[in-house]
Amino acid sequence: MRHARLLLSLAIAAAALPGCNRAPAETSRPRIALVMKTLNNPFFIEMQRGAEQAAKDLNVDLVVQAAERETDVERQMQIVENLIQAKVGAIALTPSGSREVVPAVGKANAANIPVVIVDTRLDAAAAAAAGVKTVAFVGSDNYKGGGLIGEYLVSRSGGKAKVAILEGIPGHETGDSRVRGFRDAIKAAPGVAIVASQPANWERDQGFSVFQNMMQAHADIDTVFACNDIMALGAVEAIAAAGKTGKIRVLGFDAIDDARNAIADGRMAATVAQFPREMGKVAVESAVKALRGETLPADIGVRIGLVTKDNAKEGGAK
Amino acid sequence: MITGRLGTFPTGGRRLGTLAGLIGLSLLLWALTPYFLTVSNLLNVLEQTAINAIIAAGMTFVIISGGIDLSVGSLVALAGVVLALGLQAGWPAPAAIAAALAVGAAFGILSGLSITWGRLPPFIATLGMMSVARGTALLFTDGRPISGFDAGFRSLATGRVLGIPAPVLITIAVYLIAHFVLRRTRFGRYVYAMGGNEEATRLSGVNVRFHKTAVYAVSGLASAVAAVLLTARLNSAQPIAGMMYELDAIAAVVIGGTSLMGGDGAIGGTLIGALIMGVLRNGLNLLGVSSFVQQVVIGLVIVFAVLIDTALKPRKS
Fold first, then answer.
1. Going by DSSP bridges, is the β-strand pair A136-139/A115-118 parallel, antiparallel, or unpaired?
2. What's this model's pTM, rounded to 2 decimal places?
């Protein structure tokens, strides 16, 4: 039995070996870390690509890490702690929880490692209460994006619609801002009514099941706004399963490839393009600038735009 | 190894093997990265391991007794939410913590009762509880996290005594108590006995229903202790916290050499199992290994640990 456990240790060693890059402690190339919410979403894969391109152009090393699950903030905090131990030069972070990562950012502050926040803002009050500092925020204006899609709905529906909303994980700044932007934009049209609004936690399968339930409860729903395309595509499947394809207007957010295709063939109506590749690029550039001691603007906006049938194919946005 | 009719107390040999695995892994990481073997990183790993280790301590009781508890991750969320609601309502921290621990133990007892009186398989009873506890946590909070606690409470996660992080000290205390209960008390002996041969245990006059229910109370209590640390650490209680933590806890227990068949195992092995997982995750981060590869590696380690355990388990005659 003693041998068995030794065998286990060897197995662990053998399993751990292949993916290893020896940490280049001896070289002077700066190391930048990009910590993402998840790698299960094409949005973040795009962001990673942009970041990798920027790292190559700027001749810096890039470490990309993410928790297995987007909901696991504690794991994201562990990753940040471990990267602090690995003495990376700067960290670009997309918070899995706007308040929950504040202590992790505090630890980076204590280690004098600059932190650039990407895509999802830190909770301003929590950060202020903890005395936590970040060098910049890089991301799209989610409130404005929600507004764009709301205005689109008002103009296309002729001011009359019964809307269901699929929210992200409750308490996430990103989703909350999109919903607020959307709600404020449709206030202009009293005929546009929200009949249901529930979280589907950014997930496709939950988008499917939550929207299926909403259709059961409210047979008159004619529009669904999902706070990301993944949930919107889940809703598209639920609509297809109910035989209502084309009868319900599906609005998303993010303009991932699958959503563009769905818009091109009429299963979705519109989405908001963010430019995650650009976001990843700017995030790394900002992290490198911060590492060099340059001052950055507190807010670095990345453009957004509306995607409809007119421009879905060419990968552009209005 | 001392084998009796009512279960098996492993002697040190087996745990030494698991320990060799941990040491081997640490040596490997020491060779691969200069950042691993530093005092600050080792304390960092211990701190990160605390939550899983504490949940896994409770899980060890359940698995030795021949059961399984899938509800622990949800109980972490629920107990955290209860704690946060208490703190938010202005209760003193000890009262809010006591309420959280009571809720964890109470939900554990409910699982235990449905197993002992309802005769449900533990897998089903705790699967149901997993959903009930998660739903309750979401209901209590309307799905939203509760955050922002005072520094006194947060010192449970951020404080240090003689340079050692508070969560590490709490983990040590939990393991000392768990070790004492398992090895030095009648209840501990019954836990092994029930897992070894439940019928024989019952026939020898042990109140199996009572003690089995208590096992799930222990697991619920351990989850609540972990919830206190998690809430203090994140300065927030999330109703969606702790998803899939049950799998991490079960993995720590089986890597530590406790048999999923019950009746056989040791709490010290679980601690080493949890440390192996913590060190592995830490090391893979330090090395900048891709997140996808990390999941493959951790999965392989779990499978190998159980493979070895099954292959070497003496066949029952």
1. parallel
2. 0.82
Decide if B147 and A2 are in contact by the 8 Å CB cutoff: no
Whether B67 contacts B308, CB under 8 Å = no
As annotated, the residues of chain A forming the CATH 3.40.50.2300 domain(s) are 27-140+275-302, 142-273
CB-closest option in B40, B144, B243 to A171: B144
Residue type for A266, please?
G
Give the SS3 label for residue B69. Answer: coil
pLDDT exceeds 70 at position B12: no
Give the type of residue at B171.
T
ipTM score assigned to the predicted complex: 0.85
Q: How far is A19 from chain B (nearest CA, A)?
A: 6
Residue labelled with tokens 């691969």: B32
Pairing of strands B2-4, B7-9: antiparallel
CATH superfamily, with its number, for domain A27-140+275-302: Response regulator (3.40.50.2300)
Predicted confidence (pLDDT) per residue in B160-205, tens digit: 999 999 999 999 999 999 999 999 999 999 999 999 999 999 999 9
Interface A:B, Cβ pairs < 8 A: 194
Determine contact, residues A120/A95, Cβ cutoff 8 Å: yes
Give the CATH class of A142-273.
alpha beta
Q: Is residue A2 very low, low, confident or very high in pLDDT (cuts 50, 70, 90)?
A: very low
The minimal CB distance from A2 to the residues B16, B48, B287 is found for B16
Name the residue among B32, B235, B286 with its Cβ closest to that of A82: B286
